[in-house]
Amino acid sequence: MVVDPHCHDHDPEAEIWVGVRTPGTEVAERVTVIESTLRDLGHDVVPAREFDDAWLTHVHSAEVIDHLATVWDRWVAAGSPDLGAQRVVPYLFPSAELLHGLRRRLPTALHAEVGVYCYDTMTLIGPASWRAIRAATHAARSAVDLVASGTPTAYALTRPPGHHATRSSYGGSCYLNNAAIAAQALRENGFTRVAVIDIDAHHGNGTQAIFYERSDVFTTSVHVDPGAGWFPHYVGFADETGRDAGLGTNLNLPLAPGSGDQTWLSAVQRAADAASTFGATALVIALGVDAAVDDPESPLEVTADGYRRAGDALAALGLPTVAVQEGGYHLPTLGRLVGSALEGLATG
Ligand code: SP5
Ligand code: ZN
Asked: Which of 209, 197, 214, 207 is nearest to 277 (CA)?
């Protein structure tokens, strides 16, 4: 398990959910309980090392990286915390209809700029958020280093999560895309064809978008059907299969709310089979455990044994594997769910 203590530092405090400030579910205690459970299960702990942040432009735009790195200090300097939400939060979004084909300017007011990069109202930024955001990328890249130097499987305890972040935008409690960063780093370490299998309860829209036109990275996601009314609502449908050179290299497997182990595991097996058909030489698992039956953020009903069997099925691919933590919000069972998935991966 690769950890970076700065992953605790991000404190979004809240989510603005349909206009109401509610307590956030993506809390620092998530990494505390996962780390302590995995320690109890005998996992060794490897500290993440520092990396050059300039490399992050291989996955994200320089503009969003600079925004994330500077927005809190600029928010304070502008007096914006006093506007009401304390945290950085958008209020206006430059939608295609609003712009009507006109050039998207960078607004003068910082509280308007936030909507250029942040696509929802649930992904707030506080004083230490950037430290955690970059620490999570360091954990993901450290796990890649381990695998590149011969460790068969490495797990990165990343927080905040990443799979909803696109090249230039953030949302869904995600800021930079740790799984995409791991996939790109594997590519640059000589793994010619990389598969990302996303088993978080929500569609991995950011990872899909980052690699949508690429033929060297296959992306597949098993998630609750956005068409049944679930985040991210606009994407994650079965007919999204990639574009241009990437045509045929994206596979979405949306599931009905209420789906349990049997249905979910056959979708995970389909994802694994597709990664194998693609000819992947390395694997990234976007390991959210919020499909669990007790999780407050999704209506899927996967058990701890289901996660163990998913780990088994993915291990059967026999590929060098980096697992990156995504969602999972039920603190009493969170550690055990991650432990079960990793147990399956190690023994499968
Ligand atoms: C990484 C990940 O799992 N992100 C989840 C993003 C989906 N969030 C949707 C939130 C829907 C409203 N939840 C109500 C919680 C009130 N605090
Ligand atoms: Zn999720």
From this structure: 197
Cβ-based neighbour number of residue 215 at 10 Å:
15
State the catalytic residues: 164
Phi and psi at residue 254, to the nearest 5°: -75, 140
Strand-pairing partners, residue 219, are: 196, 250
Q: How many CB atoms lie within 10 A of CB 106?
A: 10
Per-residue confidence (pLDDT) for residue 85, from 0 to 100: 80
Distance CA 133, CA 158 (A): 9
Tokens representing residue 136 in the block? 């999570």
Q: Quote the pLDDT of residue 207.
A: 99
Q: Is the pTM of this model over 0.85?
A: yes
Contact 217, 211 (CB under 8 A): yes
Token couple for 161? 């999560």
Rounded to 10 degrees, what is the CA torsion of 35, 41, 43, 47?
20
Q: Which atom of ligand 1 is nearest to the CA of 23?
A: 17
Tokens of 167: 């090249």
Smallest Cα–Cα separation from 1: which of 41, 30, 56, 61?
41
Q: Is 174 helix (H, G, I), strand (E, B) or coil?
A: strand
Question: Do the strands 14-17 and 20-23 form a parallel or antiparallel pair, or are they unpaired?
Answer: antiparallel
Predicted confidence (pLDDT) per residue in 42-90, tens digit: 999 999 999 999 999 999 999 999 999 999 999 999 988 777 789 999 9
Tokens of 87: 């945290």
**Which residues approach ligand 1 with their CB closer than 6 A?**
15, 17, 22-23, 25, 122, 161, 164, 172-174, 200, 202, 231, 288, 290, 297, 326-327
Average pLDDT per run of 10 along the chain, which is 348 residues long? 98 94 96 98 98 97 98 93 85 97 96 97 97 98 98 98 99 99 98 99 99 99 98 98 98 98 98 98 99 98 98 98 98 98 94
Q: What is the pLDDT of residue 348?
A: 77
Q: Phi-psi bin for 190: left (phi > 0), alpha (psi -120 to 50), beta?
A: left
Q: How far apart are the first and last CA of the chain?
A: 18
